[in-house]
Request: fold
Amino acid sequence: MPRKKNTRAQPTPPPPPTLSRRERQIMDVIYERGRATAAVVRGAIADAPSDSAIRTLLRILEEKGHLRHEKDGVRFVYLPKTSPDAAGKTAMSHMVKTFFGGSAAGAAAALLDMNSSELSPEDLDRLQKLIEQAKREGK
Reply:
């Protein structure tokens, strides 16, 4: 006898953990540099909080799973646990779901509307190739 298909709605994955403004600033610094100490992070943030506040935020980001650290003598050097490419895809997916009702075409159109004058012929060729590939793959 064939098995019945599970028609129950699958649970949606939890949203990515939200970051505070300061946590986002710290992650931006670390992604831009690839790795950074607390002092480097503090120096890169306008109107930065105290050294101890930066260290606390770095620890919180480690606990949330966004960062890891390596020892360099007496200093900790912080690195992102996720590659910039993977983090960007996750953030973009969240943005598309949140602001464009899940429509990748809507998000792409908004990006093109914002930056169309900045696109080079090479950029346009690359976009065209990606569209053609998506059509072939049935995406």
The first strand starts at residue 67 and ends at 72. Residues 84-137 form one domain. The mean pLDDT is 86. Helices lie at 21-33, 38-44, 51-63, 84-99, 104-115, 121-137.
